[in-house]
Amino acid sequence: MRLVSVWQWSPWGLLLCQLCSWCLGSPAPSTAPDKKTGSQGLRFRLAGFPRKPYEGRVEIQRAGEWGTICDDDFTLQAAHVLCRELGFTEATGWTHSAKYGPGTGRIWLDNLSCRGTEQSVTECASRGWGNSDCTHDEDAGVICKDQRLPGFSDSNVIEVEHHLQVEEVRLRPAVGWGRRPLPVTEGLVEVRLPEGWSKVCDKGWSAHNSHVICGMLGFPGEKRVNTAFYRLLAQRQQHSFGLHGVACVGTEPHLSLCALEFYRANDTARCPGGGPVVVSCVAGPLYSVSGGQKKQQQPKPQGEVRVRLKGGAHPGEGRVEVLKAGTWGTVCDRKWDVQAASVVCRELGFGSAREALTGARMGQDVPKRYECANFGEQGITVGCWDLYRHDIDCQWIDITDVKPGNYILQVIINPNFEVAESDFTNNAMKCNCKYDGHRIWVHNCHIGDAFSEEANRRFERYPGQTSNQIV
Fold first, then answer.
1. Residue 344 lies in a domain
2. Where are the beta strands (DSSP E) in 210-303?
3. Cα 413 from Cα 334, distance rounded (Å)
4. Residue 271 CB: number of other CB atoms within 10 A?
5. Which residue has the higher pLDDT, 212 or 425?
6. 341 and 353 in contact (C-beta within 8 Å)?
7. Contact call for residues 370 and 379 (beta carbons, < 8 A)
8. DSSP letter (8 states) at residue 6
9. What confidence score (pLDDT) does residue 439 get?
């Protein structure tokens, strides 16, 4: 059967697809714990931060020297092979552009190409060991499934020494903890360390640091706080400090990327003459204020919106589009990173970006992909029809130029009655669907004569939806 790369198509398509292995087009990774004879002489480890034990920058030791892998041509199939080298059953994802920080030393592999079934990374095609034109800003990482291969001998796997690092940050209200409305926009900054949640010393604290904290928590900006009140309150409470000397530039998407210092276990005097850090953040437009509170004044946007996200399934994700000379266009992903993505996220009222997606992961911006004349190409436009053989596994309906509104989706099997059947009434399926310009809701699906004539007439006069509630 012909494989279908569904990620290449327009995000405005409606996919009718069987969930089968040949439709997804990805080979099932082997989980057998066979001995990897081809990897003898190589050692593997996961490095970088912030990360969990089953994810990180991939590093390989060859001839006594540790190095990394370039993300050029890197795929999930290569990640499967490397995760098995590291003792995990398979990969669930991979990262690019040094998401876990740039490595050092050699870049051992470039243009790595694997089928996903190889027993060793040495069986994969590449430019050759040590032959690369990449920099460490292009180091690849993997996210492995948190499941170990049974019987795996990890003599060739090295775990990087776990240094203290900041993984989670939260704001804890100084008063009324547990009774404050969500989201919490002001409070004491706490970081999660191995021994538990700890406060941060405010000596040398700057607005740049607050900017990074608010961005991590999903807020676009910070504002001043009443430090005198919190200083007075701090004198009456005991605090456990774990972090001090934080010095952020302000563009970092995560606190762990800032210069900072951890208190050592034998430090007797922690934060002398200082107090716990307090941060107040500005809530973005997505956060609505509960009815019991006075509604805060949101700043009105200045001028016309010039940046938007399209094709995302959830708020805060999508293909970046910018308005220039009255026309919307896209942004090239060359040198696109988390810092650049964070600028867009904050401009749209969100916090720092969690990930910068490349490779048209949210769909390409294309004038239409399917027309009425494209018979047999697994795609049609609205108002057209086509016949497909039984071996067609996916079908797209291109709605690029369709205006938002209420529609009826109809799919018919054996429309020309070419195959004999005892009952043809169950060959047609109809659904109500609503398109709001970003997403499609499909509901009230039924086949044949499932409805009475009166119910079917009401179905044809589909009144639509209001606020995502069917009426």
1. no
2. 221-223, 241-247, 259-262, 278-282
3. 45
4. 20
5. 212
6. yes
7. yes
8. G
9. 80
Which tokens go with 307? Answer: 């940046």
The whole-angstrom separation of Cα 46 and Cα 52 is 10
Nearest to 12 by CA among 435, 445, 450, 451: 435
301-317 pLDDT tens trace: 455 678 988 877 778 88
Which residue matches tokens 């708020």? 315
Domain holding 101: CATH number?
A: 3.10.250.10
Q: Which among 11, 5, 6, 1 has a CA at the least distance from the CA of 398?
A: 11
3-class state of residue 108 by DSSP? strand
Q: How many structural domains compose the chain? A: 3
- d(CA 236, CA 442) in angstroms, rounded, equals 57
Beta bridge partners of residue 278, listed in sequence order: 188
Find the mean pLDDT for residues 272-293.
75
Q: Is there a domain that residue 117 lies in? A: yes
Structure tokens at 173: 């209200």
Q: How far apart are CA 259 and CA 246, in angstroms?
A: 6
- Residue 369 pLDDT class (50, 70, 90 cuts): low
Contact (Cβ atoms closer than 8 angstroms) between residue 360 and residue 5: no
Asked if residue 38 has pLDDT above 60, the reply is no
Instruction: Tell me the CA distances in angstroms from 110 to 86, 114, 240, one per residue in order.
Output: 19, 12, 47
Condensed to tens digits (0 to 9), the pLDDT of residues 380-390 reads 666 666 666 55
Query: What are the tokens at 330?
Result: 């896209």
* Six token digits for residue 112: 């790595």
Looking at the DSSP bridge assignments, the partners of residue 65 are: 62
Structural domain contains residue 96: yes
Spatial CB neighbours of 131, under 8 Å, sequence gap ≥ 6: 110
| Adjacent-strand bridge partners of 14 | 397
More confident residue, 5 or 75: 75
Residue 212 lies in a domain: yes
